[in-house]
Amino acid sequence: MSDSKPISQDTHRDTLLEEAVQVLNRYTHFSSTHRVTFARAGDRLTAHLERADGTPIPQSDAPLDRKLAHLKDQTVVIRPFFLPMANSPWEEEAANAVPALDFDYAAVLGYGLDGEGKAFLKAVYFLPTDALIEGQAPGEDGLWHFPLATYYVHHLSLDPRKNFARFLYLAERMTEALEYQYDKMGYFYSNP
Q1: Is 79 exposed, middle or buried (0-12, 13-18, 19+ CB in 10 A)?
Q2: pLDDT by residue (tens digit) across 154-172?
Q3: What is the C-alpha separation between 48 and 62, in angstroms, rounded?
Q4: Reduced to 3 states, what is the DSSP secondary structure of residue 181?
Q5: Of 25, 39, 71, 161, which is least packed with CB atoms within 10 Å of its CB?
């Protein structure tokens, strides 16, 4: 019998989610056509998209916006995954097992432990669901199990002075990935 608790009861995961929101929001100040704002919604993260000119996305005639209008409330659902990057007293396997692909992005939250044994964010890997599942399939148990330590290419710097240039326009990157997802499948993972 496992001693692991549901995600909503694990304070270390709550702490990591709050830190992740702060990190992701560091990359939102470089707006172009769209802006994005990150928040927490229970055991998930969300990213709300809007046009920088104030036009509601459903009322825009831009080809990209006509696709984004199908995204429920123009809000991207982000599934957190927890990656211990040091010896951890917490079991993350159950928290990281995914029964359904009902999220548009993944946030892999790499964490360490401080001198008092409290979790702190060491790395954030932020990537669209398409990139996460590429070459993967559900296991025999019907759950998705991802090799979380392999996604370094999508690493976000935790140091605000070292924001990687490719992520300065995070809203553009996200909308391009969402457009690709919509073109490929005709819907979004969060609302098929």
Answers
A1: buried
A2: 778 787 677 665 566 788 8
A3: 18
A4: helix
A5: 161
